[in-house]
Design goal:
The chain is an alpha/beta fold. Helix 12 packs antiparallel against helix 15 and helix 15 runs antiparallel to helix 16. Strand 2, helix 2 and strand 3 form a beta-alpha-beta unit.
Length: 336
Amino acid sequence: MNYLLTGRESFNLKQRKNQLIEKLVGKDNQLSVSVYSGFEDVDIDEVIDDCNMIPFLSDNKVVVLENPKFLTVRSKEDEKNKIRDQEREDRDFQRQKVSFDKLIDYLKNPHDTTTLIIVFDSLDTLNRKFTSMLTPYLIHEKFDLLSEEQFKKEVIDNLKDNNVRIDKEALKELLNRLPNSLENWQRELDKLTLYPGTITIEVIENLISQPLEDNAFELTNALFSNDLSKALSVLNDLTVNRIEVFSLIGLISASLRMMTQVLMLIELGKSDTEIASMLNISSGRLYYLKRDIQNRSCKEILKVLNDLSQLDQDIKSGRIDGQTGLELFIIKTIRG
């Protein structure tokens, strides 16, 4: 049997992939496992040829195809920007379609000693049309992000299981700092388990970094609160952490777009629960977003977003230095 594993909860997805590999060929039998990354230029013919080869010194073999391009929907942003000319876009799509069709042909008559595991945990949008065409020929297992309550329960259970002592305020701050990612949480848990005493809020502030998205929201909040000192301080913290300029612009843009989405959904009469679900954010994040956009309009936020887009073009064209440009953008936005 072959498998399709999809979802943004990469920790559980990877655990399932490793569980399948261990069950099929053993934990340490790497000679019977081939891995192809779809982020590279993978030749689907090579993947299929590998699937059709008999196992080496084993009864079974596993072929893993990670994030194949044909399962990615071209983003609306790519469509809008037309990064490549139309002819190249069309050729690229046709090549992906050919790869997909070849894979379907193989799955109709797969090799009986090979298990193909297709993994899609990319942040790109999943091509549902191609996915539905694959599902008759393999087992499709989904690994969606945990809900806010499920994630909180997982964190608390893990702390108890590892005998980590933590006070209430520290736990609250920990949960505020954690993105909804079990993979990230396991890394942070490793640090907390090494701490010898009871974990306080001061320990959390020193050990657990705030998500970059939180810093971006903090920066946009300072912009709309006309707090120049705070805005420049947050920018400096991000720069000290060696976040490149274009990543910073992307984070700020995402924060601004999130604000406009919240405003529009509020105008449509959506409840807080509906908004949080539609935007895949926690109720806590939504609370602070609503606080930050009080007395703001979409038009006002979109103007700042447009100024940021112009800055991005100016930096890329070499008309202004990135760090200087961001500082001037902040000063201009606050002082007008």
